[in-house]
Structures are given as C-alpha cells and as structure tokens.
C-alpha cells in the first residue's frame, strides 16, 4: 500500500497507536520509519537520526510476519534475537532465562519452538524484541491471532515497558487495544494520515451523549430535547447541547419530565474513529456505528 503525506510525531516515553483497516498503509509507514524501505519524498527521523539503520540496535521491532527457527529452544531463540541487535550471546542467554522467569514461563526455556502454541511462540518473539533493552519498541499488529489471555499479557508487557521509559509504537486494527493503552494515536485511511494527536483530542471531536429516562411520556419538556434525539429501548439519546447540562436539567424539571435517570456518556475512541476516518474504514475494521448495533 502506498502512503501519501503521512506525518507523525511520537513523544519520547509515550505509547502511540497507529490505527487503520488492513491495507490502509500502517505497515508501509512503519517500514519507512525503520529504514526497511525508503520514502520517495519527505523526511524521517528515528531517535534523532535521519538514517534509521544507524540506530537499529536501539530499536526492538516485531514485524507482522512472525519468524522463528522451529527447532531452536525458546531461550536460545530469545538470545539469538538479542545477538542480532549486538547483545553478546552469553549475556543474551542470561537475560532470556530471566525474561522467561519474570513472565512465569521458565519451563519453556528448553522447549523447541515447534512444540509451542501460536500464543506461546509469539510471547517468545516478543521477549526477543525487548531482550536488548531498546529505547524504542515497534510492534506491527502484535495482537493478531492471540487469545484474550495472551492479549492481556501483551498489553501488560507494553505498559511495563512504557513505565520503564521506553517509547512504544504499535499498529492495530482493533480499536479496543488502542483505547486501553494509548496516550496518542495516528489514524491512517487509504494511505493518508487523517488524524494524529492525543486520544482525548480525538474523542473531543464528538459531543458527549445524554441518556435520559423520564416518568412522563410527553409534555412541554420535550421542547428542550434537540431534534436529533431518539428514543432507544425506553430512553432518550442525544448529544449534550453546547449550553451544557444545567439549562437542560432546568427545562426538563420545569416541564414536568419526571427524571428517572440522566447520565452523560463521553464518546469512546470507537465513535471518534468513525467520525474521523469515516464509516467505510470502520466497516473494513469490523466496526459499525453504535446506532446500528442498537438496532
């Protein structure tokens, strides 16, 4: 996938997610950033260097296409990946055993890769990605193919690395992972970056949603509701007016609505993604608007 005019800035020590449907250009963007392929125009800087391969040993990279030697024991595979980044093999073996122990998998150390499940093998490759203690970790679709338990473990590993001061970039087409983990996101659709900034900034592009239940079926209070208000499952749903909740509450009370419940829900990243990238991109990622989910 060709990309056009993608501009990204990743603060040191942050967790940044690159979101977009399959084929949007996420992997191409990552490969250009790391120096695996060269852009035809524009500039890039990785850890302060405009030649990414010069700082490759400070980077841990997990590509979308996994690759481990099937006959190699897990600990050796981790140590070998460290050696590829300049870590002496003896130190790599020591660190590999420690990483497996810390992860609660020391019993995997001597097991050949071919005897491990897909999730176990991916965990080994992830440990090999961080064994040389990189300053930057780049993970391309790291959650693909993992069950819920292994996804949870990977999320915790990402948090632990960030807490240690490591910068983390990961691409995903699963919005829930980005919402739980990221401080910043970039949304790529059809080869273009359509948004880049804080998660709160993305969510702030939509107004909060009011959920209202009343004892009264109708009355003067209804004039306080926006024309777009819809009744779904016995409750009214509509965007919070720009004037805020106080005038709305007063109008409902004065109009005799008989408020049973009223809650204000801040839009999630899922809804922000649809608003920014468009419904078509959301459908490609397996997401549909909340209104359609209710219906």
Automatic annotation (TrEMBL):
InterPro entries: AAA+_ATPase (IPR003593), ABC_transporter-like_ATP-bd (IPR003439), ABC_transporter_ATP-binding (IPR050763), P-loop_NTPase (IPR027417)
SMART domains per record: AAA
Protein name stated in the entry: ATP-binding cassette domain-containing protein
Family: Belongs to the ABC transporter superfamily.
Position of the signal peptide: none
Gene3D superfamilies per record: P-loop containing nucleotide triphosphate hydrolases
GO molecular function: ATP binding
Keywords attached to this entry: ATP-binding, Nodulation, Nucleotide-binding, Transport
Lineage of producing organism: Bacteria, Pseudomonadati, Pseudomonadota, Alphaproteobacteria, Sphingomonadales
A Pfam short name: ABC_tran
Coiled coil: none
Lineage top rank: taxon: Bacteria
Domain named ABC transporter: residues: 1-215
């Amino acid at each position: 996938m060709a990309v056009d005019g993608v501009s990204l800035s990743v603060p040191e020590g942050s967790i940044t997610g690159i979101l977009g449907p399959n084929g949007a250009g996420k992997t191409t963007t990552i490969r250009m950033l790391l120096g695996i392929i060269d852009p035809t125009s524009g500039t890039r800087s990785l850890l302060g260097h405009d030649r990414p391969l010069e700082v490759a040993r400070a980077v841990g990279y997990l590509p979308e296409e996994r690759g481990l030697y099937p006959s190699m024991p897990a600990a050796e595979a981790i140590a070998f990946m460290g050696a590829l980044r300049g870590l002496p093999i003896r130190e790599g073996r020591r660190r590999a055993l420690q990483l497996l122990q810390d992860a609660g998998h020391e019993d995997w150390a001597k097991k050949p890769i071919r005897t491990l499940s897909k999730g176990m093998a991916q965990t080994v490759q992830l440990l090999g990605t961080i064994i040389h203690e990189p300053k930057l970790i780049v993970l391309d679709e790291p959650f693909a193919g993992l069950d819920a338990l292994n996804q949870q473990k990977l999320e915790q590993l990402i948090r632990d690395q960030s807490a240690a001061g490591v910068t983390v970039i990961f691409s995903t087409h699963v919005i829930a992972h980005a919402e739980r983990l990221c401080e910043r996101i970039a949304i790529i659709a059809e080869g273009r970056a359509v948004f880049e900034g804080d998660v709160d900034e993305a969510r702030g592009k939509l107004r909060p949603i009011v959920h209202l239940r009343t004892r009264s079926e109708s009355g003067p209070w209804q004039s306080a509701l926006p024309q777009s208000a819809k009744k779904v499952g016995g409750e009214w749903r509509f965007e919070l007016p720009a004037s805020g909740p106080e005038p709305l509450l007063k109008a409902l009370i004065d109009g005799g609505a008989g408020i049973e419940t009223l809650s204000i829900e801040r839009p999630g990243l899922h809804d922000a993604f649809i608003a920014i990238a468009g419904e078509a991109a959301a459908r490609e990622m397996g997401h549909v608007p909340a209104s359609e989910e209710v219906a």
